[in-house]
Amino acid sequence: MTTTSPGSGFTAEGAVGQFPAGTVEPDYVLTEALGTDPASVFAGIDDGDRAYWDRARGFVQDEVLPVINGYWERGDYPVHLLRRLGELDLLRDGVAVDGFAPMSRMAAGLVNMEISRGDGSVATMIAVQGGLALRSIAECGSAEQKEHWLPAVAAGKEFAAFALTEPTHGSDAVALESTATGTAGGFLLNGEKKWIGNGSVGGVSVVWARGEDGQVHGYLVPQDSPGYAATKIEGKLALRAIWQAHIRLENVFVPQENVLPGARTFKDTARVLLATRLGVAWSAVGHATACYETAVQYARQRVQFGRPLAASQIVQERLARMLSELATMQLMVVQMTRLDEEGSLTPEQASLAKYTCTRIARGIASNARDLLGGNGILLENRVARHLADTEAIHTYEGTETMQALIIGRGITGLSAFA
Fold this sequence. Notes:
The chain has helices at residues 47-64, 68-74, 79-87, 105-118, 120-140, 143-154, 266-301, 313-342, 347-371, 383-395, 400-412; strands at 160-163, 179-183, 186-197, 204-210, 216-222, 228-232, 244-255, 303-304, 307-308. It is an alpha+beta fold.
């Protein structure tokens, strides 16, 4: 067998040889933002919203993409990126906080999309800290609670979690069984929570539990409270660069001043969840955009059979299909966000956006992964990470089945929920 070493000029038999340069794979450049907007749906975005979008894009290109693969592969949490989101005022998900500039729902959507285009774990930091925890305090908290927590959480100076889901209650979160029992000066919380982002990193958890009146209420629980034990969930195959926790609450004392006065029933919890559902649809657009743009750049640079993949008819058809699907997603989230800004968005419409966009994003991610061939499973080529993370966002904030039942209830006027 004859072998040749780069730069040696000799084969194993000692004869002069030339190293075959064509066997060396080029360094693909796959992370450039292509400004993909086939239906010009973003052409009318106002300057204030675009400024948030541009700031998010700069953060993604300069600070997220250069480091995120390592954190994702190690299952490590880049908490410095959460703090940077706060410093750049990208963490609020549109929640109004005194001392912070106005952030429209459209700006929040664009930020969710752009950060997801960079990485799903980093986007989930916004969904957890801003979309869920911050919004819970803003909508259900007392004046004193808002003054104490909102600026610090919005700026990323304090970590915050939203502890609703339980090990035995995911889609049927309304049936949660953690309890809050009255005691001198406050309440004792008992129960378990699962899949709680930021639940083990310090800070505060907004814990939802059932009171003695049978209703669901919200409680602000510092994570260093006695009886609060949180374990990082290991072995995840998606969103690996953010930690979710399994929490055990055992006689955790919550003083009366830490009870959210505006959280009286599960309807208040559901109001917070509804506000974030559209954000998940925007995140799906970001993941799909990353996969589409990576596929375009790879097809232009990858040479097979003597020409770029992009010169093949079947590849062009696949890219056209991805672009068509992406345009559908963009049109949907922009229109639904306009309805949200008008105050007319219905739960069925929010579910339709989430249902449609995460389903389409999975298809685009799978198509792009396949188009990259064997290189598509490598983290360095971007698509594999988005393919895995899209599986997670397709589930959280309500599975496809639950969204379909909400939509179906709107269509028929009949509830199919158990």
